[in-house]
Amino acid sequence: MEAKLDEIIERLKKLEDRVTALESKKGVEQKEEVAEIIEEELFEDGPQPVKVVPIEEQELEPTDPKLPKRLFKGSKLEVGEPLKPKVWESQGPGPLRLKYLKSEVQSDQYARSGKYNNYFISHLTVVNTINEPTSVTEIKAFWWDGKEWKAPLRTVLGVKYQDWRGFERYDWLDGTTSFNLKEKESVDVVVSCVVELQGEALGYEFRNFYSFSLPQPFRTKLVFEDTLGKKNRVVTEHVNPKLSLVTEKERKESQAGLTFFTYCDDTKSFSRIYSEVWRDKWNVCVRISASSSYYYWDKKGLEDIAEKAKTVGKTEYELENLKVIKQKEGIETHCYALCSFEGEKPVTYGFKFHLKTSTNETIDSCLIPRRPEGEESLTVTPTEIQVGQEVTVEWKVTEGNSQDWIGLYKSNETSNTSYLKFLNCDGNTTGKLTTTIDQEGIYVFKFLPYYEYIDVAVSPKVIVTN
Length: 466
Hints:
CATH architecture of the largest domain: Sandwich
Helix content: 10-25%
Mean pLDDT: 87
Number of domains: 4
Low-confidence stretches: none
Distance between the termini: 97 Å
């Protein structure tokens, strides 16, 4: 509170000094100074587009007793709505009028010698309001640091033109900010105000952002001087776009079957890595955003992981394909299969994720999403037949694929590769097929997806006699 009061007192003193200086000015000059003071007093700072909220270190109970404890360490990023730039009127006694069109920002992707530039680009229409030619002899730019106007590193003028394909382009006039105007002519120009900052640039993803350390919105004052020495000015505002951080809600909307999502923010680079788990038709899928791929396992694949975990005696078995280490960015990710050896054979029942950035750390886990029991079904009628008699096989599944098939097996056959007959389902989720069995014995039919050998439904036994 005291700091805020000191700031207000300092601001009032500066305002008093400027009002005192007005007494020495007269006419148009005094009027313009008053207009500028009023304009500056209307400036309002907006919130930063992203807020860093400390969470220090939180150890939370797991979502299921089988799972390890959860850990969240560091700070989280909270994204706000983007500001809307205010349009300020052109001011000045000269023949020029400056019409604001739009503004944009760009930033160097890399720092050089510990410095990088932000570019605040204002699109304007410059109008000559008189019936004779005139010229813009100089353009000066200033930026508002929250207390006063400062000169940028440099000011660059660009004039719009159409290239041979009809696309709009800008010819950047390096070393000059002057140009001519015919009587009553309007010219579209851009003015780039270049501000140099110390530190590291945020990188490619932030090329259309300006530094979060600068005021929000960022204001530039552009002063155009004509051949008569008269000056016209306009204030332009620049705002950052909304910071895009992936959320669980967005992922659920775009990734069908998503059952788990966790993330780890980096408050230095204003970025987020995340991991997610979902179930497609037959597979359990895992993605870590820091990796370029996602991985999936069917029932047999998960059983194989559990067998490997048992061999090395680890109930938390690291999946090497999901291990990512990016030392330069400070990113490290690990995914562990959670396995149990208590039953007749080992099982994989969950995943544990350990995500680290240069500022944060997250440990979170989930159970493997299971398909509802009885979702796929396979029936056969009749269940007692003679050799050569037809039977009808009927199936029902949630999703169909052109490579789904039904196999005929001896009832005591354990290998799904040893099928006696192959029936194509043509991608239908429901249907009936008829076939014959030519030898006596006890048989079953199995529904297998994608030409694979993992059954998802088994029919009742069929007894065949002579």
